[in-house]
Amino acid sequence: MGFTAQLEDQIxxxxxxxxxxxxxxxxxxxxxGHAGCLRVLRELGGEAAASLAAADAAHGQTPAHSAAxxxxxGCLRVLHELGAEASLARADAKxxxxxxFAAGKxxxGCLRVLxxxxxxVAASLVxxxxxxxxxxxxxxxKxxxGCLRVLHELGxxxxxxFFLASDRHRPIPFLATTVVYVSPMGRCTHFCAAKSPPxxxxxxELD
Length: 207
What we know:
The protein is mainly α. It is built from eleven helices and four strands; from the N terminus they run H-H-H-H-H-H-H-H-H-H-H-E-E-E-E.
């Protein structure tokens, strides 16, 4: 009996779920940036290899979501290389793609990697979640100015020159579909531009 078969038998005896165990291994490796471990799972084949693109049952998230959330550019590249490219553009149970996680956590490098990979992966940079928010909206909400610049550079529909005048020391971009307003208490409120945009005199333009 080979090593993989022995390990599989041990897991079945302890937890009854070799598939679930492999999926947890893949997400943990990606979340901690261990690209080499992802390669090992691919080499083991079967459920271990399939786990690289598999989504968890609870949230619909893949190892690519874990890698993007934690800023591991190398893991994103390796997952694409090993055949899990579809997972890099996959939406979870809330409609969040790895791009939403990367933008919301301020990982500019991950956004650039996703764009470089092209196809549906690059298109996810402008994909909307179930609340119709795009990665740029989460970058603005969390104050990640670098991510906003990268997303605009890479083609995200962002009107870069308009900002809410209520917070000149930390201007918040006026996005194409959503305004993110930060109140004096630090709370974020979203305004759909079609419903309740700020008045023109509330905006100022940067050179």
